[in-house]
Amino acid sequence: MMIRNIPARFTKAQLLRDFGAHGSSGIDYLFLPVDLQSGKTKGMAFVNFRSKAQATEFQEVWHRSRLPNHGRGKVLDITAAQVHGVTANLAQFTDYTLESLRWHDALPVWIDEYGRASSDA
């Protein structure tokens, strides 16, 4: 899923916490793109789910809603992404891109079935 209108100040950890705290389990991949020049997020995220049913439920709950503690800002716009699956999402990155993302603490996060994240989300 592609999520638009995420506040620039939000981190991967905040998104995972907020989505998880409101019953959005099943996320197994999260990427929060950043501008490599400024280091700021681009206001969007990509998430993948273990099942289509979990993705559908997430969209039904979060589409056109606001993130907690974000005030009256823009509502989230959630649509289907073009790439699906953890492996396919990770395959989009080159070694050079991953090194640049590592430098900005912006690597994608994948989460195992026990809820353990691949990096410091």
UniProtKB/TrEMBL annotation:
A molecular function (GO) term: RNA binding
Any Pfam family matching the protein: RRM_2
Entry keyword set: RNA-binding
Domain annotation RRM: ranges: 1-83
Keyword RNA-binding: yes
Signal peptide segment: none
Keyword GTP-binding: no
Protein's UniProt name: RRM domain-containing protein
